[in-house]
Design brief:
The protein is mostly helical and about 160 residues long. The chain contains seven helices and five strands; from the N terminus they run αααααβαββββα. The strands form two sheets. The chain has a three-stranded antiparallel beta sheet with strand order 1-5-4, with no helix packed on it. Helix 3 (about 65-75) packs parallel to helix 7. The longest helix has 23 residues, at about 25-45. It is globular, with a radius of gyration of 18 Å.
C-alpha cells in the first residue's frame, strides 16, 4: 500500500514518461478510460452473492500453485463464481490488477483447437493441462504464479 504522496509521484512519473506517438493529452485520455474500465471491473467483483458460509483462512504455508489449485477447487464447489466474476477473471488486465499475474486467471476452452494449443502463449504453456468446469463451461486456469502473487490471491479468495 502506498501513501498519497508516493502515488502522486508515481502518477507524475508516468505522465513525464515519453511514449512513442502519444502526447500528454492523449496519455491523460487513455488513463481516464482505463480508470473507468478498472472501476467497472471492481464494481462487478464487489457484487457478490449473499452467503452465510464463511470461508476458513487459507493456508499461507502452501506453495502458491498448490494454494491456487486447492482454493479454486473449494471456490468452485461452493459455487462462489457467478457468470460476471467468471467474465472478469478472463480479462488479463483485471487479473494483473487483482493478482499481479501476467495472464487471465481463466481461459475458456474452445472446440476449434486442441487443449495443448489453447494452453500456449507465445510457445509457452501458461495454463493447467486439465480444464476445470464452472457453471457447465470448461476453462483453463493460469499456471504462471509466483510467491509475490500469493498475498493478493489469498485476499481475493477470502473476500468471496
Amino acid at each position: 500500500m502506498m501513501d498519497k504522496r508516493t502515488f502522486k509521484t508515481s502518477f507524475n512519473r508516468l505522465l513525464e514518461e515519453q511514449v512513442d506517438g502519444i502526447p500528454n493529452e492523449k496519455k491523460i485520455k487513455y488513463m481516464k478510460k482505463w480508470i473507468k474500465e478498472y472501476e467497472q471491473l471492481e464494481q462487478t467483483t464487489l457484487e457478490k452473492p449473499q452467503t452465510t458460509d464463511h470461508t476458513t483462512p487459507l493456508d499461507n504455508s502452501k506453495k502458491v500453485g498448490e494454494l491456487v489449485r486447492t482454493t479454486l477447487d473449494k471456490i468452485i464447489r461452493k459455487q462462489l463464481l457467478n457468470s460476471d466474476r467468471v467474465r472478469v477473471l478472463q480479462d488479463a488486465r483485471h487479473c494483473k490488477n487483482l493478482f499481479d499475474i501476467n495472464y487471465p486467471l481463466l481461459k475458456k476452452v474452445t472446440n476449434g483447437s486442441s487443449l495443448l494449443e489453447q494452453r500456449l502463449v507465445n510457445g509457452y504453456s501458461r495454463f493447467w493441462a486439465n480444464p476445470i468446469t464452472i457453471n457447465n463451461e470448461k476453462y483453463l486456469v493460469c499456471n504462471d504464479w509466483y510467491e509475490r502473487n500469493k498475498t493478493k490471491f489469498i485476499k481475493w479468495a477470502e473476500e468471496l
